[in-house]
Each structure stands twice: as C-alpha cells, then as structure tokens.
Design a protein that fits this description.
The protein has 562 residues and is of the alpha/beta class. It folds into 3 domains: 286 residues, Glycosidases (TIM Barrel), CATH 3.20.20; 75 residues, Immunoglobulins (Immunoglobulin-like, Sandwich); 178 residues, no CATH class. It is 30% helix and 17% strand. The chain contains 15 helices and 19 strands. The protein has an 8-stranded parallel beta barrel, surrounded by 4 helices. The two termini are 68 Å apart.
Length: 562
C-alpha cells in the first residue's frame, strides 16, 4: 500500500486548496497536490513545490483536479472552455518520472452547486479523452465522497470502466462533524459515531463491482476544532484507520491523509507539526507490513484465516479486527495456552508454529469486550533429514544418525527412511550389521541362490545363512519384510557371531498363535532382549517395519548383543 499526505499546495487565494506545508516527507511513497479548472497558475508554475518530493524517484504523485465551480464547471469542461489548460496540464504530467494519478472533479456527489450524473460523466470523459491522448501513463481516478449515514448516491456518477483506472473517496472521521450536534451525528453515523471501516464500505463495494483498486484520496481526523485541541482523538482514530483499512479491505492500495490547515475554516488537519498525531501516524505505518516506502516495492498483504490455504509453519504474523468504538485489549492463545497479549492496534501477535507438535490445534483471540473467535488449524512437522540426506521422522533422527556413524546403514535405501523396508533391503542391513559386529567384511558370493535376484548383497546374506527363499527358488526382494522375518534374520546374524538362541514352546504375546513355528524362537529372543518390541501385549508377526525402524533395531542389536 502506498501512503502519503496532502502536504503541498497553494493558498486558497492562489486558486487551490490548502496552505503550503512542506512537512516531513521521509519514508512516504506518495505525494499529492491540489489544482483545478480556474487556477491562475499552471502546474509547471507550482513544480518548485512538489518537484523536490519527486526527485528521488520513490514516490507516486496524486493531482487533485478540482472543478472549482463545482457543477457549473461541468458544461464548461464539456464545451472545451478549459481544453488549452488541460492539454498543458497533461503534457506536464506526462513528463513526470513517476506514477501519476489525477482525481477528476472529486466529491461530485456532495457538491453545493449540484450537477446531474449525465453532465458530470460527460465532463469527466472529456478530460479523460484529452488525458489519454496526451499522457497515456496517467491513471484516471473517479473519486466521490463518503457522505455519512445517508449514503449519498455515487454509483450513478460512475463514468464507465473504460474511463476509470482507480476508484477513490474522501474519508474523514472527525470528532465534531456537525459542530457537536450529537443527535445529528448519531443519525448520520459520523463524528463520535463514525467509523472509517464502515464509512468506506460503499466505495469498496463499488470497486468490487467494477474490479478497480481503491485510493483514499484525502481524509483523516482534525486535531483542532474551533480552537479545541483534539490531538489525542485524532491520533487514536488515525492509528485505527491505518491499521485496519488495508487489512479488512485489500482493495485499498493507496492512502492519502490530509495534512494541512486552511484559511477559511475552524478545522485543522495539520499534523506535521503536531507531535501526538505525527507519532501515531508513524507508528501505524511502521507497525504494518503492508505499507511501502518506495512505490516500486511490493508490500505484504493480509489474508483472512478463514481463507488461508497455506501451511502453518515457521512464524505466523497475526492481527485481528473487531468492530468497536473503543480501543480494546486482545489475548491470543493456542489450545488454551496464552502466547500473546496486546493493547494496541492492530492487535498483532506472532505465533511460533515450529514450537507446536504436529497435528490439530485451535487458535483463539479474545477481546476485552467479550468478543472472540477461534480457528482450527493443522501443523505438519517440517521435514527432518538424517546425516546422509534421507528424510526421517523427528523421533528417529538421532538414532538413525548414530547408525550411520557406526556404518550400519547399507546403500540403496532411497531418500525417505520413513517408508517400509523390503526383504532385500533388510538382508543388506543384516550384512552391514554382521560386518560391524564381527569387524570383518562379508565374503563375496560364490554363486546365485535365487531365480529372481542377482543382487550380490542378498546373495552374501544367503551364503552367510541370514536369509532363505520363499519357495520355488525365489527370494522376493521387493516384498515387504515381516516382523517375524526380521527377527529370524537377526537371530541368524547373532548365531553366526557365536550366540545361542534358546528354544521355546511359546511366547507371552497375545497373538502367539499367529507367529510361525520357524520364527517363534527368534521372536522370543529378540523381544526378550528388547531388540524388536511388541506393543499392547501383541507382537504383530505379519506386520511390517519402516527403514528407520530397521536401522534403529540394528543399532540396538549392535550395542546390546556384543
């Protein structure tokens, strides 16, 4: 979101609105200037004022081209009375080395000297036609005024999609809109009853209808009214508006705040020399990730959690909006555990997702007025890798790395050790285990024992007596190894190393009847030594094991059965 202030302009007597307030422009990505149909001076004349703000090439430029005589000017514009001025104006704008916006006849829906929609549309289109022919890069802005709760018509003034690049609006949220007439303010939803978030809805709805971005061309909250200081009010309302407007309405891509006094009213919007308002302004734009300090940069943007489809990972930056006339406090929690408390807009918090376990969680934000909302989300644990680059489960990482360090992991196991291990892979693991425990290299195979594999490591395992076929001369190297087969292979490694496997009639497992007779001794021994464990009183002899489980089993045997 680009942002800036109306800090530049001539005095009313010079033919434009606003005093010359150079102000503090550091960090802002937009600058604006008032001009109009009956101005005595050209834009080139005023370039000494706005030109310096554009020299470093970081700011966009918004020109307010007012119909100084309001409705009376519509017929004059259409008749061509101002064509020479318009040509000169657009030629000048075309020479500026930055994005340029021109707000044409702003606030037409609340003019005192009224016009009809047809008259305004004709005048607006006439200016656009000249502008497009002289300065094709200049963006044309249709900008009615928010007019309070009476919802003054703006749709009928819309000049057509081909004539509009941006939709703008004036958005003020003054404390005393009707000179302290609270009943009238309440009726119209302005003053102390006004809310920028609600007041801009009509404009945003129009932009959505026509698929146009939104620029808030002017607005803010006066810090003085008839000599009364409203700095604290203005600061709080400004911070609220800058925090929430682009969050709730992502269509808003540029915000210009009024930063000028005037010589004909008791209302003062100047804040460049008001430390309270300036501090709130700077804090608001600094604390939000959406505002950019160079129009060429790309800012962040908010996404509703209800519409978020990405992964919950790393650090999630969160913020919350609730409609309330008062500043509240907010408490953020996950699964009932508080992780942040905030008392300032936009009620922001950062959630360290990496500290959460994988699985389902519930995020809740609760406000001091009792409002709350919860979102269910799921954490997928970040990938974990062993020292050789293969993916492993987090719980298995340390032991797999230890198995790698002891040279217990054979080659050719693939890039994911979480998958189930095959008979051929387990045979290779048995050979590796034997070599590590004996301190000797397994001898090269002397021949081929099986009809379905010539893998030398499997043949080594066969000649060492670790594996048998499945019948018919086949080994089935790609079939998954069962838990009882794994126990049997490991027991043969142990006996090859000189160990003894006691014979048993049965095991203590509930599923003992499912254990094959040829495997019962091995299952009893390996489970008794806690090399291959059962669970829940069962062994699950026909179950399978993952590669990482097999490596941990090998590690346990190498350490526990020497």
């Amino acid at each position: 979101v680009w942002y800036g202030r109306t800090t530049l302009g001539g005095t009313k007597s010079d033919g434009s609105y606003g005093l010359v307030n150079q102000g503090q422009m550091e960090g802002e990505s937009a600058v604006s200037f008032y001009s109009g149909t009956t101005d005595a001076y050209s834009m080139a004349h005023w370039s000494y004022l706005y030109g310096p703000a554009l020299e470093d090439g970081t700011r966009a430029f918004l020109l307010y081209y007012n119909f100084n005589q309001e409705g009376t000017d519509c017929a004059l514009v259409t008749s061509g009375a101002y064509d020479s001025k318009l040509i000169e104006l657009f030629d000048h704008l075309n020479g500026l080395n930055c994005p340029v916006f021109i707000r044409i006849g702003g606030e037409m829906n609340v003019w005192g000297a009224q016009t009809t929609p047809a008259e305004f549309i004709a005048a607006y289109r006439h200016i656009v036609d000249i502008g497009r022919s002289r300065a094709p890069r200049v963006a044309m802005v249709f900008s009615p005024n928010y007019s309070g709760g009476n919802r003054q018509d703006m749709d009928t003034f819309y000049p057509g999609d081909q004539y509009v690049d941006w939709i703008g609006t004036s958005l003020y949220y003054d404390r005393y809109h009707h000179s302290g007439d609270t009943a009238r303010d309440e009726f119209y939803g302005v003053g102390v009853y006004g809310d920028a978030m609600l007041n801009v809805q009509q404009t945003v709805n129009l932009s959505r209808l026509h698929n146009k971005p939104v620029i808030l061309t002017e607005g803010g909250s006066s810090n003085q009214f008839s000599g009364q200081d409203n700095s604290s009010w203005a600061a709080e309302r400004m911070q609220k508006a800058y925090s929430f407007l682009p969050m709730v309405y992502p269509e808003i891509k540029c915000i210009i705040s009024s930063d000028y006094g005037n010589d004909w009213s008791s209302v003062d919007y100047t804040f460049y020399d008001n430390s309270v308002v300036t501090s709130a302004y700077r804090q608001a734009v600094a604390s939000s990730p959406v505002y950019v300090h160079d129009y060429r940069d790309t800012g962040a943007y908010y996404t509703k959690l209800s519409a978020y489809t990405g992964k919950w990972e790393g650090t999630m930056d969160l913020a919350a909006y609730t409609y309330s006339p008062d500043k509240l406090s907010a408490v953020w929690s996950v699964d009932g555990q508080i992780f942040a408390t905030c008392t300032d807009y936009p009620y922001a918090a950062s959630l360290d997702v990496s500290a959460l376990a994988g699985g389902d969680h519930s995020l809740t934000v609760t406000f001091s007025n009792g409002a709350s909302k919860s979102y269910a989300f799921q954490v997928t644990e970040a990938p974990v890798y062993a020292q050789d680059g293969a993916q492993v489960s987090k719980w298995a990482q340390a032991q797999v790395d230890e198995a790698l360090a002891q040279d217990l992991v054979p080659q050719g196991l693939g890039s994911d050790y979480r998958v189930e291990i095959t008979r051929g892979q387990f045979a290779a693991a048995a050979v590796k285990l034997y070599e590590a425990m004996s301190g000797e290299k397994a001898p090269a195979p002397s021949g081929s024992a099986f009809t379905d594999t010539t893998d030398p490591v499997i043949l080594q395992a066969a000649e060492l007596g670790f594996v048998n076929g499945i019948g018919g001369g086949a080994f089935a190297p790609d079939a998954l190894v069962t838990r009882e087969q794994a126990a049997s292979m490991l027991s043969r490694v142990y006996t090859k190393l000189g160990g003894e496997i006691p014979a048993v009639e049965s095991t203590s497992f509930q599923d003992d009847g499912q254990i094959s007779g040829w495997a019962r001794d091995a299952v009893a021994f390996m489970s008794g030594k806690r090399i291959i464990n059962g669970w829940g009183g069962s062994f699950a002899p026909q179950g399978n094991a993952s590669i990482e489980q097999a490596m941990i089993i090998s590690l346990g045997m190498s350490k526990g059965l020497r």
